[in-house]
Structure formats: structure tokens, C-alpha cells
Amino acid sequence: MSERSPAPGGLELVEALVNTLDLETGADSLDTEEGRARLGVTEEDVPAARELRESLRVTLLAHAGHPPHRPVTPLGELLAAAPLVVTVDPADGSAALVPAGAGSLTARVAAAVAQALVAGTWSRFKACEAADCHWAYYDRSPAGRGRWCSMQVCGARAKMRRYRAKES
Known about the structure:
Layout: H1 11-18, H2 33-39, H3 46-63, H4 75-80, E1 84-88, E2 95-99, H5 105-119, E3 125-127, E4 136-138, H6 151-167
Antiparallel strand pairs: 1-2, 3-4
């Protein structure tokens, strides 16, 4: 839905996961082999990926100041089960938190969230205010008060609804 540039760093993975479901049409790319392959999940992983996706969506809605769209497992509970390890580069001493072993989707998301926390980008990662959208986007507005994934689509629809409500 969004014409915005992708979220920075590891948040691009989180954005890709949240945006696998088009709420307006009901199309879910996790239903396709290609969609699952883009995220590195198998058909057996889909129920857990969907649960993670909706927990992320609720968190991103909270970042934008909106209530949950439905009850979900809290994101913290899901990420607590993610196996992560700290790696240290012997050449320069830099450290990173990375998924242990092959890295499940949950562990890769947990590492991305941790990276975003350190970078200070996590709180600007939001979900669109439009109830028929809730697309994930990274808010690059100067004040960090963006409301829609696309001003041309979701923002314009919301403004038109408000205008029509005043006219009636």
C-alpha cells in the first residue's frame, strides 16, 4: 500500500512480515510458497508467523497511539522465546545480538527489534491508522507524528470521510 521507502536496518524484515496481509482484500502472501520463501518460513511455520505478525501489528499501532485491532499474544511473550546470542567481532570489537543457530523468524525479528532499540528507530516504526489498512511503515516525519502509510491513499480517504461527515 505504501509508497514510502522501506524501514531502516533489520526493521525491513519486520515491515515485510507485517505487510504480508492486505486487510482491505484479505490477501495473505503467507498463503503462497513465494511469500513464505521471502521470509524464510515453511508451511508449518505459518501459524506462528501469523501470530507474530499480529502481535507486531498491535505494537506498531500502539507506537502510533492506537488501540489493538484485536486481542493477541503480547509481543514480549513471543520474543522472550527467541534464541539470541551476542557476537563480538575480533577485528574491531563490535558486538551484535543475532539469532542463535539457523535463526527462526521469531529470533530474526527479536534481533531486528533489539537492533532498532539500540539505533533509536523502534518507536518510529508504526502501523497505519486506517482500520482497513494497518500497514507497517517507518515514520520519517520531522515530528514523528505520521498517521498513515500513504498520505495519497489512506490519508486522503480519512480526510474525505471527515469532510463528508461535516457536510451531512
